[in-house]
Each structure stands twice: as C-alpha cells, then as structure tokens.
Protein 1
Amino acid sequence: MSSVYDNYKAVIGLEVHAQMLTKSKAFSADVNEYGGIPNTHISEISLGHPGTLPRINKSQIEFAIKLGLACNCKITEENRFSRKNYFYADLPKGYQITQFDTPICTEGSVEIETKSGGKKSIGLTRIHMEEDSGKSIHDQDPYSSLVDLNRAGVPLVEIVSEPEIESGEEAYQYLMEIRKLVRYLEICDGNMEEGSLRCDANISVMKKVATEFGQKVEVKNMNSIRNVQRAIEHEITRQIDVLEKGGIIDHETRTFDAASGITFGMRSKEEANDYRFFPEPDLLPYWVTQKEIDGIKTTMPPLPNELKKKYVSELGLSEYDAGNLTESKPIALYFEELIKQTNNHKAATNWLMGEVKSYLNTNGIGIEEFPLKPKTIANLIQLIDENKVSNSVASQKIFPLLIENPNKTAEEIAIENNLMQENDNDALSGFIDQALAKYPEKVEEYKSGKKGLVGLFMGEVMKLSKGKADPKKANQILREKLEA
Amino acid sequence: MNTFQAFKSDLNAGKTSCVETTTNFIDKIKSNAHLNAFLEIFETTALQQAALVDQKIKEGKGGKLAGMVIGIKDNICYINHKVSASSKILENFESLFSATAINRLLQEDAIIIGRLNCDEFAMGSSNENSAFGPVKNPLDTSKVPGGSSGGSAAAVAAGLCHAALGSDTGGSIRQPASFCGVVGLKPSYGRISRYGLIAYGSSLDQIGPLTNSVDDAALLLEVMGGPDGMDTTAFQEPIENLFPLQEGSSPKNIVFLGDAVNHPNTDPEIVSKTKGLAEKLETLGHHVSFKSFDLIDHLVPAYNVISNAEASSNLSRYDGVHYGYRSKDATDMETTYFKSRSEGFGWEVKRRIMLGSFVLSAGYYDAYFSKAQKVRRLIQDYTNKLFEDADFVIYPTTPNTAFEIGAKTDPIEMYLQDIFTVHANLAGNPCISLPLYRHSNGLPYGMQVMANHYKEKDLLNFSNFLIHTV
C-alpha cells in the first residue's frame, strides 16, 4: 500500500565533529584529557588571557591526514587557519580557531551498507581542523551557569558529508562507519555519549519528481547514533506532514529531544550569527609535504574495509563473518594474529566469534584483557583438526581450563586432564563390548530393526570412556560389531 | 645623558649602585607624577631585583643589561604584576606569565621599574585615550607626548628610567619618540616575540625599545630579539650581535620618497630639513635618490581597515565573563557582554571595534578587508622593490611636532598623524625614529630610517652614524 510519504525523498547531509586523541590541545601544551576536575587542564593560553598566542600542535595535523587518507581524500598542501568570531561564555577568546577556506581534506568518500545489502558511497565535502570550546554547565548551581574550560582548545576535526544520505538508516550506517574508522585509526574514541563524537544533521525533503531541493533544517543535540537515526526519521515525517498540509518549512535550527523522540525549533536562521571569518594572523600557514603524507601512510593501521575484503576474497569467509570480525579493531587484530598461526580460517572465525566472544561478553571485558594468546587458540584448533580432542571437549573442558592456566598449551591441558581422544582401537573395542554387554536385549532390538538405538550405545561408550572416545571411530566400530 | 652606557661607566667607577640608581629613578618618577607617565611603580620587585643585580655584579656574574632600569608599556605582561592596556576593562588584572621579551630582559639582569601609561589598547597617536588620563610631554606639558607609547617616550625623555619598552602597530613607538626627542625602534615584524604583548593588530604589532641612544636600542634588541617557540610568527633565525655599533659609514644607497617629503600635510620646516638631510648625505658621499610613492594616500586607510579588523577580534576576549571588568548591572550572559564592554572600553576602542567588525561582516568583507589586504600586498611589493637597490629609506617620522593636548578632536585628522609610520608596519620592515631635529617652535621631531627586512644591524649602525653626524 502506498502512502503520501512514498512520494517524497529525503536529502540529508551530516556534520560530524570528532575530538582528536592528541596528548595536548590543538594550540597549546595543555593536557587533552576527557573529564578531570573542572578548570584544571588549562593555562593562560586555554584561558585566552591577554598576550597569549596559539601554536600548532602537529599531531592534530597528522591525525586529520590519517582520516583523510582512510577516506580517500585529497590532502591540502597549504593549510591556513581562520578565526570564527562569536560570543559565548565558554569561548574564552571570543573566537574559535578553525579552517575556513583551506580544509585539510577534500573530496573523499565513506562506503556504507544499505538495508538491501548493497553498498553505497557517501561523498565527503571536506574535513577540517578546529578547536573545541569549553563547556557551559547550567544544572549544577541554582543561580549561575558554570564554565569548565578543560575542553577549550581540544582539537577537533569536522567531517562534512555531501547531501547524499537518504534515510535515518543510512545516516546510522554512515555514523557507524565513521566511528569504526576513527577508532581503527585511534584518533578519536568515538564516544557520542561523552561528546567525543558529535553529529548535526541537515535535513530536507523533496517530491521524488521535483528537481529542486527543499528547505533544509539543521537538527542538533543527538547524543547517540541511534538518536541521530530517530531524529532524522521524525524530522522527515514532520517535514512531509507540514508540506502535505500546505505549509512551508522554516529555515531554522531544531533540537532533538530523546525522551519524546521529536524535534523542537531552537532559533531561526535569520537570527544567525555573522561569524566574520578572517585569516588567523597569529598562525602561519602549515604546509603539508608529500614526504609527510608518505610518512603517515606507513603508520596507517589496516582499515576495516580492506580487512573485510581480504577475509571474503582470500580467506573465503562469508560477508557476515568478515563483517563481524572487522567490527572492532582489537578483534580484527586478534584475528589477524590468529590466522598467522592456523590455516583453518573458518574454525578460527568460529572460535573467535563463538567461545571467545561469549567469554568476553560474560565477563564484560575487551579482547585486550583476554588471557589467551592467539597461538594458544590456534593450538587448540590444531588438536581438534588432528582428531586428538573432540570439539565439545575442547570448548567445554579445555577452553575453561586454559583460561585458568593461560600459560599452558592446549595439548598440555588435554594430557594433564586425560582429555586426549581415545583413538586406540583396542581400547575403543573394549568400551563398546562393555556397552553392548550391558544391554543385551537392546542389541536384539537393534538387530530386529530399531537402528535408532545406536545413540544409546554411543552414549554408554562416551560415558565409559569419560568423553574421550573419538565419536566417529567409535560409531564405526560399534556398527561393525552390531552388524556382524 | 641618561643612557645605560653612561650609567655603566659610573657603576664601574664605583660611583653608584643598582639600588641607588633605582631608588633615584623611583624618587624622580614620584616627583614627575604630573606627567602621568607611570601607571604604577613596581617598587618592591624593582628594588629586590636591584639588590640581586648588585650582588651579581659584585660576583662578576652580571648580565648584559645588569642594572638597566626599564619601564614597560602597560600592554606587556610581567608575571604577578598588573597589566591593563590603560583600559578600565583590565583594571587590576594581574598577568599569570611574563612576555618573552620581559623574560629575556630579566635574564640579562635588567630592572623592571614599573608600567607606563599608553593609549587604551595601544589605539591612539596622542596618549589622550588612556582610561587613566593623558600623558604630558615633558618638554612642554601643554603638549601631547604622542602615542600610543606616550608614557614610554615621556619617561625616557624625562629621565625617569634608562629605557622603556613600547609597542608599535602603526607608529606607536616612533611617533612619540619623535614628539619627545628620543630614539624609538620598531624592529622587523616578528623580530621580537609578541608572546605577552596584548594584541591590537596581530599582523602589525611589534615590541621595541625607546631609549636615549642608538647604543641602548641595539643592546635591547639584541637581548629581546630572536626566535621563540611561543610565537610561531616570530622570525626563526637567531639575531646577530648588534652591540657595540660601528663608527662611521661606508657609502650607502639612500632613497627619499618624494610623495612623502612633499606631502601637503607636512610642516614646511620639516620638509626643508628633510631635503637638507638628503643634500647633506649626498655631500658625505652617499648615493641619494628621490622616488615616487603613489600609494602614500592609501597607507592610512589600508592600515585602519586591517588593524581595526584584527582588533575587533583580538578584543573579543574582554567580555566580563572570565577576568577583568564586569558591569555591576550584569544580570545574564547578554547583559554581561553589553554592559561590561560598553562601560569597560573607551570611545576610541569602541569606534575601532565597530569599524573592524563592519569591515569583516558579510557583504562588506570583499569591499574593505580583502581590498585592504590587496593594497597591503602592493605596498609590500613596492617596498621590496625599493630595497632591491636601496640600503635605507628615509622619511620624516611625523608631519608635525607635538600638538596641544585636546587640540585634535576629529578622529580622521588624528589617524593621519600615522601617515609616515604605518608604511613600515604594513610592509613589516624595521624602522627607527632618530631625534635629529628641533623645530623653531622649540619642539623636537624625528627622522625615520627604514631598512630591508631583518637588516636591523645595518639600520642601527647607520643610525649611529647619522645621530653623530647630523
């Protein structure tokens, strides 16, 4: 059934701010750390005291270039800084140092997966560097607003997408991809709740048959990736409803209320600031050389998409498995180590995404804290492949014991605990004879056609062998004896 | 004469000590309080430093400036001392750090005696824009000392210290030096770190010395100049040894700018003395030529647009929120800004903030700010071309001698006081005003000598020759 909503399409561009994990601030030596006692990560420079000057922290340039390279951007050679002038209590200089006409990266793209399972490339207009403001706190003192300048001067990159996102779902995928990238690159911790990753959305709707874009609305204050999706979905519906009722869309900035899931008007664009951008006279342009870019390239970690492609095409894993393995960098790096130690890539995937992941989840830890080295897991896989232990013994008995004794090998654990599979035909025959002797009437029933009873004998064999019987071999000998 | 060199011979002869000299200066500052040159005497710290330096001298460990008593313009930061830029908005503000220039002076055992009155935020040409009252010219107290470093020039001229620091954005060292009859040096842009100088026009600002001799200027530049990690716009090459200066001068190529010398605004006596200087230099064997300077009437407008634009942004931080003056009537963020800034800034500062905001605003940026930047580039190109042949360019520093306090009420007329000085700031060249002449009205006036970028050594050597020859 078609609805009026199907007559429209949405045009969405996202502006993402990512706080860079440099040791010091963008334009001073003040420490860059989240939180801290208010107004302790400061000096006269962060405070914007008279007579102070900024100086460029080169790490932020390196970080921005890394992101640009990961998104296939052009890197700008001459980087100028500008001042964006506006008054706010948490902006100590009365202006923000930013890049205006020479963003460090231009013309890149980010690939996302669409709902239908296809791929879509979202273009990036620019990535530029700028400094963060401090924080205004309005809810801690009944009479005054408080200002914390620990964040003032923290380096940011702003990633501006082309208006090529068409739904809340795509925005969600895009942000997940951006977050994955900055985490792989270790340039930002990607935490939207703490504000180290922030997103504003420019949203408009237009009739599918229309040729001109609709009036765009900027939506702010969405503090999770899921909320960005919700806000966009709500805003698209709201705009279509307004248009269908014959209304017009105001040029305005709206805020998202997560509790109610709706957006509210904050201010009209007519009241907007004139930022009076002009070149920052306190900083010389920063020239990025090809040598510098080449140097940064050598320090680039493997990127999720490259790894994913490799796992599918070279290792023969499914898209699904490859996607799971590359979702987070530490898991991917663990897997990279693991496949250096074993050629059984499928088993490696299953172990990592199965037992290992569930252990991590149960204990609420990351793989960085996982006690077993990839080599230990590889050794366990080898024992299984060589039929020395069964899969179930490996996962139910050896794996937990290994975690308690992470310095031992799987083989040592198996031997010490007498868990090596019984492959000795005589021993197996012994267990089978015992099992058959225990249930003579069942043997008769089997022989008269009740073939399902083989499970009963197998269970008895496993019990007698304390689980060490190689089930395949035991089954074979059992049948031989029963059929004889 | 009240120079550091003279003091040093007295000191070496055992005729005085740092403590005695500092005490004498403090007394003299107090007895000259009517000049309103000093806003504050750093009595305790100056005397402590003097005693320390006396001790170091006794141990043979005195630095290059051991015992030099220096007053600093009230826009240069000195840790744990007040700095107000002569503005109510920073009244009683104490700096948390010292300017690089101050640290370097102290490392060589200078004694910082106090802070000197100036035009508010260094905006002015007469020192009448101070929130703490005008400075009087010690040579005629009915006259202005010039500005904005009027307190610095007056203090040096009146013998209240050996030397003073000023800052020069459009002539603020050289013009008062000219009006008060002292030496005023604006080094190349970036030669002395701006870290700790309260910004006015960041792309033009430069700290420099006002002294009673070229020797002292050279010594001070040698100490303060050179690269600084805290100011990335500072020139990255180390500064050469400038002191002692050479005697005499080999023949030089000297350019006089005809359009400046013959400018209709210039006092005829100054015009004729400038021409006389050209002739004299020629007879002394120098190669003198007159060149045209079509851009001369664009200098002040371009300077005003750029300096005001930068100032409008640089002064945004004085908002009543974090430090400095906050209006008692402020009730919320908006009234904190409006009232604190309206009450805290003086009229000239407000005028320049308004002008600067205007020329940067959407719709006017291209017509004013971009245009002014282009004019600046033309001036720089022209100047660089001049120095392909010339060793020095000579100008009168000011079109007239010091004027009556309160005489100039039209801001445009006041801005035109800077007509000959802004050139060096727009182009970034080093330029010195030398107290070569005394007008028939009894007041001094200076001649400025400009050199190519970073050629301070040549400039100071030639200045030494000029001051002893003319």
Note: The first helix of chain A runs from residue 58 to 70.
Protein 2
Amino acid sequence: MLALSRRKGEALVINNNIEITVLEVKGEQIKLGISAPREVPVYRKEVYIQIQESNKEAMTEPTPELLKKIFE
Amino acid sequence: MVINTRIFGEVTIDDDKMLRFPGGIVGFPELVDFALIHDADQGEQGGIRWLQSVQEPNFAMPVIDPLVVKNDYNPVVDDNLLKAIDSVDNVLVLVTITVPSDLTKMSVNLKAPFVINVDGKKACQVILEEEYPVKYYIYDILKNNKAEKAGE
C-alpha cells in the first residue's frame, strides 16, 4: 500500500479525475472531502462490506418455489 | 435475448426487461447487465421478482417492492447517487430478500435498495445515509399480511 503524509488542506489526486482533500483533523478522526466523477461511487468500507455480504446471502439458494410459497 | 440462468435454465428475455447497472451492484462492479424476471402466474404486481445477471448464470437475487413489508418506506436518496441512472421521473424501488435455512430469520435489505429508471432501463444500488437496517426481518410481517388478506 502506498502511504503518503498530508496536512490539513492538502490533497491527493488519483487518476487525473479524483481528488481527496483533508478537510479537518480532530484527534483520531479526520474528515475527507472527495471530488470524483459521478460514475465513481464512494462508500464507507464497513458499510460496503455489509452490503456486499447481504448481496451474497441473497443469492444463496431460496428456490423460486419456496419463495413463491412464502409470499403467496 | 436468450440468457443462461442457474435457477430458470435458458430464458428468453424481452429487450424491455433488460436493465443496465452502469456501476454494477455493490461488491460486484463487473456485473452490469441484468434481467428482471417475474413469475408468469403472479404477474408484475406485488410478488417476487428476480434480478438475474446476464453475464453470470449463478447470480440471481430475489427482490420485492419494499412497501409490501414496510409501508412507510420512503428513504431520502442523495441526487448524486442517482446520476448514474439519468432520470428519476419514473422509478421503481426494489430490495433484496435473504432467506436463510431458518425461515423465521428471513429479511430484506432496506439499507441498500435498487433504484431503477423504468423508462431508461438503467439502475443502481444505493447505500442510504439514513439509518435503515441491512437485515429487516419480515417473517412475522408476511404472516400478518397473509392473515389480513385471509380475513378480507
């Protein structure tokens, strides 16, 4: 992993079209500003993983017959 | 178009039932083309539909109208999250159903609904900022729905 040090107000540019700025540093918490093209989604990772797991779970099994019965 | 599916075998899908997810769905950015399949007996209203990947036969998720299980579901979605689908004039919102072996633990994901631009055939899965549960348990709700229906 590439590690770069930044101060408040400084930024990173990724791939010519994504800019991440350090807006605020308060103890253990930092606030980041992200400018990215509209097709680039940005998620908090812990939430992203939760949703990914949920998507995977939704895919495992229930047969159409079973679901139909449940929702009849 | 004929697509291959694990659950339904080979299925012919009308072009107007195809959906494009420009950004993929959460965790699966490479899957962008889907078909929305519904049970011919039940029609399009109320019942379960399947979001079937065109590219990946194994990938199919059961989805329903969230209002069936939560009639006040009305999340606020940031416009920026919806730019990928071009227009929100005529949208359909669906949520995934997860059915574990213990049926009483079945749930829908209210935190990350699918938002579909019906006219433009474009869709995305958004993650809401609002506090909605990833697992909203629906077993009892469905039971009550059924009981109410039976009592009508």
Note: The first helix of chain B runs from residue 79 to 82.
